[in-house]
Amino acid sequence: MKYLQMMGIDVWRFRTRRHSYGYYRYDLLDHQDCQVGILLADAILKNEAEAQLVKKIAEATRKRIKGGFQSGRLQSDEFGKCIIFLGTQVTHLLNYLGQVKIVKSYAPVELLQDTTLKIQTWNDLKTAIRLMNF
């Protein structure tokens, strides 16, 4: 502390981590366990209904899934051919996407509040499935 005062710094504070939030992450794997895509979804409610909805959406891709609720930074740079974003918060998890195809749709909380949005999300999901199959 005396060192800081000698340098002319009277006021200081510790750096704090940015607020991290939870999200759902499902790796989408083909029959050879190769990653063909990733599904990232906002976790707003963090309840069983939201978790089950996201899991069912991941299962609807007809890929083998691995994952669930996560918090903190995204730990991988392997995304496969396609990234599916459900919501807007999760789009900030990634800085560099390279040549990966991106499919964006509604957040799980929006789908739980307005079930008519599920039709559009299913159409978006079909687009992602086609991208992962090429």
Order of helices and strands: HEEHEEEHH
Q: Shape, please?
A: elongated
Quickly give the CATH architecture. 3-Layer(aba) Sandwich
The stretches of 5 or more residues where confidence is low (pLDDT under 50) are none
Task: State the total count of DSSP E strands.
Answer: 5
How many distinct domains? 1
- Helicity, as a percent range: 25-40%
Summarize the biggest pleated sheet: 5 strands, mixed
Strand ordering within the main sheet? 3-1-2-4-5
CATH top level? Alpha Beta
At CATH level 3, the topology is Rossmann fold
Query: How far is the first residue's CA from the last residue's CA?
Result: 60 Å
Strand residue content: 25-35%
- List the total number of helices: 4
What structural class results from the helix and strand content?
A: alpha/beta
| Mean pLDDT reading | 88
Radius of gyration: 19 Å
